[in-house]
Amino acid sequence: MDLHSTYPGVMDLKWRAKARLPKFVWEYLDSGTGTEATKARNRKALDSLGFMPAILQGPQAPDLSVTLLGQRFPLPFGIAPIGMSGLIWPDAEGHLARTAAKAGLPYTLSTVAAQSPEDLAQHLGAHAWFQLYPPKKPEIRTDLLDRARAAGFTTLVLTADVPVASRRERQTRSGLTQPPRLTPRILAQIAARPAWAMGMAARRGLPRMRTLDKYTKSDLNLPPTAHIGYLLRTSPDMEYVKWLRDNWDGPFLIKGVLRAEDAEPLERAGVDGLWISNHAGRQFDGAPGAIELLPALRAATRLPLLFDSGIEGGLDILRALALGADFVMLGRAFHFALAALGPRGPAHLIDILARDMEANMGQISVQNLADLPEPIGVTPASAD
Fold it and tell me: What region, left, alpha or beta, does residue 69 occupy, with left being phi > 0 and alpha being psi -120 to 50 degrees?
């Protein structure tokens, strides 16, 4: 079957995923927090950006490759971390890591994923990134870095925008607890989704955060949206950033940057790139649309800029690159693809995004990503 004839876009994968996932899993993946105003702002802000079409420009052969952190990538996007990926689909982390390795793209493993760095060591490619939720205890911090390095992760990503647990009301209403428990309500939802249920049965039940097994017990009673990682982590400051820089010898990124004034001190601290993100509306419902803040950050620093939050297709990737991002990361979309199509899904999504980018670049007659024009509808920020 030609997957493009049935699932030609990200939205097709999204709605197929919804039909295959138990409600509590779907709500975990798709929900924001609060009234989901930030999630809606991300979409509205992206949709407000356009390009002027071009005609009579002759044959088009767009080049989608980019350079980031001194390395050449065939495509300008990669896989962002999502906690408990393995709840969304069995062996999600393994499927995503293998797909990324084959495609030559970055894959980012979360500290609170369902598989540990050691679990994925044999599946990693050259661009394996480890996302760190900041442990409070120095000995745990050091050990996590050592484990990530030994497993083959080359880039460290500190997530800095989760000082406390968000509420995620949709997730709570679904009946999901942390750690997940097989209540009658959850069992009824699972029974309605046999493909997911059989996959989880093969993996011997609901997943847990295996990276953290070494440091704490997993049978604690926590609020629905506050997983076990919150017992270990702290809210980092600049001294924490400097400590990580001194103790990690590879590329080091800060994720969750929105304010232009944060760029200069982070640059001085020696970080290698800034990851602009509002956590896709999952953490704080009062944040601006992330894409709206990208021009000011681009004007404020020469560091590489990565971008996520609300990306739903190749045109969105072009919008972010045109406003100054060097690279784009997607989290939800890759998990929609997994839930929709299983192991075939992530590779199909990569093809969808590449084809969409090529089609849109052809419409505006751009052969290279560096030549993308200024989007219509945005006034670029100027550096002081």
Answer: left
Give the residue numbers annotated as catalytic, written as ranges: 279
Mean pLDDT of 221-249: 74
Q: Is the pTM of this model over 0.85?
A: yes
For the stretch 67-88, pLDDT in tens is 999 999 999 999 999 998 999 9
Tokens of 187: 């069992």
**Residues, the chain:** 384
